[in-house]
């Protein structure tokens, strides 16, 4: 049975122990990533599991499943050939290694990562998300469809849309991203919504759990922090769509999902996205170098914003919060990118 449609009113939107020290010496961080992965899965995690009877898995294949699924945003075999360590895209392999290191350091909950993996594989049930959120002003936030593939790929290939990303994206990468976004709803109960205006896909707006360790307070533990972001086609810029859709997504996130706080971040020079964050009531909280972008890259420096559930107005939106902007509203290149 499909989840019920949710219509929004006109308005706003355990700490774990560190793994015991091991006598074996880890492979150096500078080593070949494939060698690091094999050592992590074949030796270091199984050895650490001997001192962790509370862990849900204790063998190499169990750790590989959990880390690879979370790095790929779904069952890894659906997008990667065997063996994964040889066929995984470098950035995904790097993320899987980061997650494994975070588990060993006590900075990531293996139970949470395992639960998400099992839900993606149909083993267990999460609270269903609504199929769609109706936003006043002619917008619809809904789950992803195959018909979104072509316009989403075109959006990701547009240099203007991707100006604050290191590069544009190919069709295959876009399709993998769309599938991973929609799987977030199955694993977490929320995710990036496809945005529809007048029956036409125009981009996405929504939240996701940050699975990459991030260098700011609240971002160190993969899977615990929640980030909100957006990416809209050029034809949807300048009409307040990102702001209105994000308010709706935040209302659902803070209400139905019970999330207490979110962050958003974007490249320092991405003024349009920063203005959207500020219109949402988010407050700047310093800057950081994005770990997925080279330190000498002009997009490395990111500005962090925060918003708590108590800070989001519960009353209807005042008229001045409706579309009024002429500036393009672009995406933030966060972990979701």
From TrEMBL:
Q: Residue ranges of the N-acetyltransferase domain?
A: 139-310
Question: Which SUPFAM superfamilies does the UniProt record give?
Answer: Acyl-CoA N-acyltransferases (Nat) (SSF55729)
Q: Which Gene3D superfamilies does this one have?
A: 3.40.630.30
| Region ranges (Disordered) | 314-337
Recorded hits in PROSITE patterns, A to Z, give: GNAT
Coiled-coil residues are none
Which is an annotated Pfam family here? Answer: Acetyltransf_3
This entry's Gene Ontology molecular function terms read: acyltransferase activity, transferring groups other than amino-acyl groups
Q: What protein does this entry describe?
A: N-acetyltransferase domain-containing protein
